[in-house]
């Protein structure tokens, strides 16, 4: 007996590929909607779970990001309503504009993320440690200062310089690729 491919399994595989390829952009989008880091992580997890639950509704002929962004927007609104923080939500028009901007620029982001990864690897270990400490959810600037023996103001200044270095490195790497290097 010849077995026919299961269209459900094919759609699930298409969904999984699209989710994995766009996971970081989706996370970035959620973090642009929700200003508190911990809340944004919660909304991202809820969005991811919701997307996986509805994978069978994913149409592989359409773009994944607009669909995922719509789900994220619904989860963000629901979460903020639960917390009584609706006033901190962007307007629907602003969210739609953000959606479109992120979809339009999505190809360039992969290149920028790859360049960022390489540029971070080139930082001296102390700068990398300071940068990672600043992105940990639980650390305040004062706590980071205590860890590194710096004042809060010194932490802000060093982080600004590190970020400027990274921006320059990323721009240089992308420019070099554009020249065929």
Automatic annotation (TrEMBL):
GO terms for biological process: DNA-templated transcription initiation. It comes from the Bacteria. Keywords: Sigma factor, Transcription, Transcription regulation. Residues 21-84 form the RNA polymerase sigma-70 region domain. Signal peptide: none annotated. Residues 114-166 form the RNA polymerase sigma factor 70 region 4 type domain. GO terms for molecular function: DNA binding; sigma factor activity. Gene3D superfamilies: 1.10.1740.10, Winged helix-like DNA-binding domain superfamily/Winged helix DNA-binding domain. InterPro entries: RNA_pol_sigma-70-like (IPR039425), RNA_pol_sigma-70_dom (IPR014284), RNA_pol_sigma70_ECF_RHOBA (IPR014331), RNA_pol_sigma70_r2 (IPR007627), RNA_pol_sigma70_r4_t2 (IPR013249), RNA_pol_sigma_r2 (IPR013325), RNA_pol_sigma_r3/r4-like (IPR013324), WH-like_DNA-bd_sf (IPR036388). Belongs to the sigma-70 factor family. ECF subfamily. This is RNA polymerase subunit sigma-70. It comes from Blastopirellula marina. The lineage of its organism: Bacteria, Pseudomonadati, Planctomycetota, Planctomycetia, Pirellulales.
